[in-house]
Amino acid sequence: MDYSESDSVTLWLRMFHSAHKTLIFIGLFQPQGAIWPLSDLQAQLAAKYISGNFSLPKT
């Protein structure tokens, strides 16, 4: 992944990259409030995905 010429990275839910299904980013956002509750929700979703209880949408 080379994003040296870009200002943004396209991630579904700011977590999942469409070309790299096993690469998950947690906390890669800037909320107006506290980051910890949202990062916790992302971690829960990532755990569901890793355990097979959640599927990514078809692209």
Helical content band: 25-40%
Mean pLDDT: 88
Q: Quick one: overall form?
A: flat
Oligomeric category: single chain
Give the N-terminus to C-terminus distance in angstroms.
Answer: 18 Å
Elements, N to C (H/E): EEH
Poorly predicted runs of 5 or more residues: none
> Which structural class matches the secondary elements?
alpha+beta
Radius of gyration: 12 Å
- How many beta strands in the DSSP annotation? 2
- Tell me what portion of residues adopts beta-strand conformation: 5-15%
Strand order of the largest sheet: 1-2
Number of H- or I-type helical stretches:
1
Textual characterization of the structure:
With 59 residues, this protein is an alpha+beta fold. It has a domain at 16-51. Helix content is 29%, strand content 12%. It has one helix at residues 35-51; strands spanning 16-17, 20-24. A two-stranded antiparallel ribbon has the order 1-2. A hairpin with a 2-residue loop joins strand 1 and strand 2 (20-24). It is flat and about 35 Å long. The model has no long low-confidence stretch (mean pLDDT 88).
Write the layout of secondary structure elements.
Elements: E1 16-17, E2 20-24, H1 35-51
Antiparallel strand pairs: 1-2
